[in-house]
Amino acid sequence: MTNETTARERYEDAASGADAGVASFEDDRRGILRTVQHWLHRTPAAVPLIVLILSVVTFWLLLGSKFFSPFALTLILQQVAIVGVVGAAQTLVILTAGIDLSVGAIMVLSSVVMGQFAFRYGLPPSVAVLCGFGVGALCGFVNGALVALMRLPPFIVTLGMWQIVLATNFLYSANETIRSQEIEANAPILQFFGEKVSFQGAVFTYGVIAMVLLVVVLAYVLKHTAWGRHVYAIGDDPDAAELAGVNVTRTLISVYVIAGLICALAGWVLIGRIGSVSPTAGQFANIESITAVVIGGISLFGGRGSVMGMLFGALIVGVFSLGLRLVGTDPQWTYLLIGVLIIGAVAIDQWIRRISA
Amino acid sequence: MKTLKIGAAIGALAVALTAQTAFAGSHGKTSACLITKTDTNPFFVKMKEGATAKAEELGIELKSYAGKIDGDSESQVAAIETCIADGASGILITASDTKGIVPAVTQARDAGLLVIALDTPLEPIDSADATFATDNFLAGELIGQWAAASLGDAAADARIAMLDLAVSQPSVGVLRDQGFLQGFGIDLGDPNRWGDEDDERIVGNEVTAGNEEGGRTAMENLLVKDPTINVVYTINEPAAAGAYEALKAVGRENDVLIVSVDGGCPGVQNVKDGVIGATSQQYPLLMASLGVEAIAAFAKDGTLPENTPGKDFFDTGVALVTAEPADGVESIDVAEGMDKCWG
Predict the structure, then answer these.
(1) Scanning every residue of chain B, which has its alpha carbon at the shortest distance from the alpha carbon of A272?
(2) Reduced to 3 states, what is the DSSP secondary structure of residue A197?
(3) Using the 8-state DSSP alphabet, how is residue A1 labeled?
(4) Residue A196, SS3?
(5) What is the structure's pLDDT at A201?
(6) Residue B225 sits in which domain range?
């Protein structure tokens, strides 16, 4: 018995002198810049967080308590809630090296379905909300199937779906707005995310709370579950992921379906924010969500970045928008600065990526 | 088998008949084009409705075109070119880009078409043969006068929020904004720009894109600037509905006066419910039907439409809708407003 075991282990004798540690990446490069670069590479949400803190401090110094008050700071959260939720969907897709131009359209169509199913067909509002989620998931599934099964480029698929879903939205709704007062009287659940808790001047709508919870849950799922790691793996190198045993097709479809569901959630949050169901809302949600993702340090080449970064990116845009408005500048300066931030973020991303080269 | 044959025969006959009428149509009828900013906004839907009904009545063939979104000028230029090629007698257009569209409009007029601007004047206004529109300055003036009269003595230290359309300051937005300020009794500075007034009662200008979401965000921003705002001017009723949500969120919905312009049915309903204090109602259906009549007259004997005396366009009218009439400001009640509303 003893002899047998020894014999069986003998083949490893050749390796007896080797390093017993698990495979690791040695960082033998020196210098502060290198160290910073390496740290940023491991913590992709750090850059946007630093920019966010710096911008808040800058506006605090410029504007004092008008800006740095619980009311104004939580107002920024309310104003970015929709972009934050849509951005979470966008993050998932971009991590797979895709892009989703149809997110805003799916959001609006879902909100219209929630409203019209309740008011036009008289369904119970909670059922109408579920139908809205169903429509969001369906749109996501079509996107996912076309990308994963038909192997069409995500940009083209979602460019097409953007037009299709938006046109469907206008045709179906006849551009009818459902007024806030009617929703309040007949289907208050549609305005659920407009409810709020406040203390000491700080106001948190349920929409804001939902956004934060969603980001935290996704951050956990992406980091600590097999599915989450598969999403990163596919974005990094789909062929390698396939060889490593990841079911690429199924994972990709699931990513788009979940993105669709999150867009439907955004649609519900949207009703809470504007009170009414309006088919013309959210026209630029796709661009705004991509902006948040990019400023948040998530690589458009896929496989790198964190959903927390996206939230910081969205908040940076919110801080700049409100801050510059309070300073009293022409709103065009806000857009100009956001443009600078986008290009800056991508430049930093490229610089950080050089560490792996 | 027999029924199938009969069915096929009837089908063939129907196809032949339609082909024939289509053929007759393209030759015998006067034709006109309607080009709107979008075909989804209820305002333009109503406009199309008015134009179609009138065209049917006069036996004119009407073709409708629209941009994909508000601001989509390329589609409108392409539509004008199509109408020229199609041999239409005239074009009715609500331009997305009031300056940029001018070369295409000139091209159409050179080709012998009558071009009428509906709702939105071109820049300069005489780039079109005629303009059938709401007097947007007057629309603003009415709600300004109403707000000042309703506040009475308190108007002297009002805190006013101005919720405008867009930073590019399209003429509709400027006219309504400046009209409101004039009506309220505030010095305008340059009447061709908003935002250059130095009256301390104005808290600030914010842009809304004319929708609920923009209205809410704009109102929130101004409330941070000054939480004591008590008068809110809004470019249109969706923006007003958004502003109301922002005010409701801070519990101020009952002590702030919101005024607006448009007269859409949801907006008038909001006047009834006390969300909006007063709104100036405009009449898109009338603009379009008058426009089609003008093209018919032009096609018949070359008659050109005339302007309202004292104005450089044809005024299709505006009325103040409110449930609480103020002294010295003419208005119609909510019931009448509901009768005439669009969308």
Answers:
(1) B245
(2) strand
(3) -
(4) strand
(5) 83
(6) 136-282+317-340
- Tell me, yes or no, whether B13 lies in a domain: no
**B193/B332 same-domain check:** yes
Both B206 and B332 in one domain: the answer is yes
Whether residue B290 sits in one domain with residue B239: no
Residue type, B317: G
Q: Taking a C-beta distance cutoff of 8 angstroms, is the pair B229, B161 a contact?
A: yes
CA distances from B59 to B44, B302, B303 (A): 22, 18, 18
Q: Test A278 with B225 for CB contact under 8 angstroms.
A: no
The count of other CB atoms within 10 Å of the CB of residue A247 is 13
Q: What is the mean pLDDT of chain A?
A: 89
Residue A28: which pLDDT band, with cuts at 50, 70 and 90? low
**Contact state of B224 with A75 under an 8 Å Cβ cutoff:** yes
CB A63 within 8 A of CB A323: yes
Please state the ipTM of this predicted complex. Answer: 0.77
CATH assignment of A34-349, among 1.20.58, 1.10.3470, 3.40.50, 3.30.9: 1.10.3470
DSSP state for residue A179 in the 8-state scheme: P
pLDDT at A198: 87
**Residues B120, B156 within the same domain:** no
Question: Which residues of chain A does B275 touch, with a Cβ-Cβ cutoff of 8 Å?
Answer: 180-181
Residue appearing with tokens 């939105």: B120
As a whole-number percent, the residues of chain A with pLDDT over 70 amount to 91
Instruction: Calculate how close chain B gets to A107, using CA atoms only, in Å.
Output: 14
Q: Which of A109, A222, A101 is nearest to A160 (CA)?
A: A101
Which 3-state string (H, E, C) describes chain B?
CHHHHHHHHHHHHHHHHHHHHHHHHHHHCCEEEEEECCCCCHHHHHHHHHHHHHHHHHCCEEEEEECCCCCCHHHHHHHHHHHHHHCCCEEEECCCCCCCCHHHHHHHHHCCCEEEEECCCCCCHHHCCEEEECCHHHHHHHHHHHHHHHHHHHHHHCCEEEEECCCCCCHHHHHHHHHHHHHHCCCCCCCCCCCCCCCCCEEEEEECCCCHHHHHHHHHHHHHHCCCCCEEEECCHHHHHHHHHHHHHCCCCCCCEEEEEECEHHHHHHHHCCCCCEEEEECHHHHHHHHHHHHHHHHHHCCCCCCCCCCCCEECCEEEEECCCCCCCCCECHHHHHHHCEC
Measured CA to CA, the distance from residue B328 to residue B259 in angstroms comes to 17
* Domains of chain B: total: 2
Number of other residues whose CB lies within 10 A of the CB of residue B163: 30
CB atoms within 10 A of CB B16: 9
Q: Rounded to two decimals, what is the model's pTM?
A: 0.81
Q: Residue A205's closest chain B neighbor by CA?
A: B249
Structure tokens at B278: 């007063």
Among B48, B208, B216, B224, the strongest candidate for a mutation testing the A interface, having the largest count of A CBs within 10 A, is B224
Hey, of A83, A119, A280, which one would you mutate to test binding to chain B, going by the most B CBs within 10 A of its CB?
A280
Count CA within 13 A, CB hemisphere, residue A155.
4
Cα separation of B185 and A241, whole Å? 70
State the Cα–Cα distance between residues B174 and A19, nearest whole angstrom.
76
Do the Cβ atoms of A104 and A286 come closer than 8 Å? Answer: yes
Mark whether B97 and B190 lie in a shared domain. no
Most confident of A51-60, A132-141, A183-192, B206-215: A132-141
